[in-house]
Specification:
The strands form four sheets. Strands 5-4-3-8-7-6 form a six-stranded antiparallel β-sheet, with helices on both faces. It is built from eleven helices and 15 strands. The protein is of the alpha+beta class and 440 residues long.
């Protein structure tokens, strides 16, 4: 047996002051190079196992702005971000966590299977027995906790005074590394959010400029088409031969198609005249859903799901119909072998906190209409461009690439928002946010 150590069934326990200081120094040096919580947890678990003999360790971080704590454990080769995937539970109502956070002293649960202070659901799910928790204190504030202990067949095992003291010293080292990692994460997130905001702003400026150009051209273009159609009408009264009538009809058809295109360009430029009025969205969506069911074909099932007692919105009903028809036809193209199109209507509220992490949004109360399909989906790169004018993936059908551009322009002209999400092989969802009218 090494000098200055006691043997437990769980490993060698360091009690000699000099050796403990040496281990702590080496552990502190090791943590200087860790870059994320996964690396920190692996280093902590290895140290606790080697020095004290507990086989499992975990870290919890207090989230004061939300009144919660996030708990992370080592996951080895599992994919995903350990911070984003961590379990987050409320502090209020959890007597054990509240005691640790408020007292800023170590708290020991001898046997979690019978102690009333613990979260019973968590204990039963994990098979926890002894829990030893020491606070991570930063500037007189509980930043989080370091915990270790036993599970299941390991039974109950209380730490010695020396082991508890050693855990406290470990916590002083861990809190600095943890705070450094968390600050780095927050800094990277702010940089990503700013970059995303800058990208969205640049895209919007480009699209707005293109929309203004399209709207201006469409106005003059529409005037020319009016002249063509007027002249064709005059000419119709002067023709006598059937072949001449057929040729005239070709001219009229082409002019009418060009007129429809001009209307779409005017919509992109937000130069349409709206006939908006207070509208019960649920009634309109159900009606349009019925039309889509007939238009999309028997291979596609249209389902409409709504919340009760939704507020009205101020909308041009004809334009809302165009929006939902555009989205429905796009969904049909994404489901060549058939599938289900779901239109859901619900209330939603966007607050300032949400806007900070979702630069496309704007605070307010909305009625949200989501058109979702279970089709082929799309890549992230394609998703970023689907609202761009003239962008289309339908090269085989000669699509103009204006449908979603018109959709967004119509909704934004109503003061609303449009957002799309998609994943290859998992379908696409497009959400339309229309400002809700005050109730009463």
């Amino acid at each position: 047996m090494p000098h200055g150590a006691r043997h437990y069934p769980y490993g060698w326990v360091v009690v000699t002051s000099g050796l403990a200081e040496s281990r702590l120094f080496e552990f502190s040096r090791q943590l200087q190079s860790v870059q994320n919580y996964e690396e920190l947890l692996v280093a902590l678990s290895d140290e606790v196992r080697d020095a004290i003999g507990y086989n499992s360790s975990w870290i919890s971080i207090v989230m004061p702005e939300r009144g919660t704590f996030k708990t992370m454990t080592p996951r080895g080769t599992m994919v995903g971000d350990i911070w984003d995937d961590a379990v987050e539970l409320p502090i209020a109502g959890d007597e054990f966590v509240t005691e640790v956070v408020e007292s800023r002293r170590p708290v020991i649960i001898e046997d979690a299977q019978s102690d009333p202070r613990v979260n019973r659901e968590v204990v039963e799910a994990l098979g926890l027995r002894t829990i030893v928790t020491v606070p991570l204190t930063l500037i007189d504030t509980t930043f989080g906790t370091v915990s270790t202990g036993t599970f299941g067949d390991e039974g109950v095992r209380l730490p010695s005074d020396a082991e508890l003291e050693y855990l406290g010293e470990l916590a002083k080292i861990v809190v600095l590394a943890s705070a450094r990692i968390l600050l780095a994460r927050e800094r990277e997130e702010k940089i990503r959010n700013q970059a995303e905001t800058d990208r969205l702003l640049a895209d919007r400026q480009r699209i707005e400029s293109l929309g203004e150009l399209a709207g201006g051209v469409a106005h003059d273009f529409n005037n020319m088409i009016t002249v063509i159609l007027g002249a064709a009408q005059v000419l119709r009264g002067e023709l006598k031969e059937p072949e001449q009538f057929a040729n005239l009809r070709l001219i009229e058809n082409a002019a009418e198609s060009a007129s429809d295109l001009a209307k779409q360009l005017l919509a992109i430029g937000k130069r349409q005249e709206l006939s908006a009025e207070p509208t019960d969205v649920v009634d309109r969506v159900r009606s349009i859903g019925g039309m889509l069911g007939r238009v999309l074909g028997a291979s596609i099932t249209v389902e409409v799901v709504t919340e009760p007692d939704l507020p009205e919105v101020f909308v041009d009903r004809r334009q809302l119909e165009q929006v939902l028809m555009n989205l429905g036809l796009n969904a049909r193209d994404a489901m060549p072998d058939g599938g289900t199109l779901t239109i859901s209507v619900e209330s939603d509220e966007i607050d300032e906190e949400y806007v900070e992490t979702h630069p496309w949004s704007r605070p307010g109360k909305y009625v949200r209409i989501t058109v979702a399909d279970d089709g082929v989906g799309m890549s992230e790169d394609t998703l970023q461009h689907i609202f761009d004018p003239f962008f289309t993936t339908r090269t085989d059908t000669g699509g103009t690439g204006l449908g979603l551009s018109v959709t967004r322009a119509i909704i934004e002209q109503h003061g609303g928002l449009v957002r799309a999400s998609s994943k290859l092989g998992s379908g696409t969802a497009v959400s339309v946010y229309l400002p809700a009218l005050p109730v009463g």
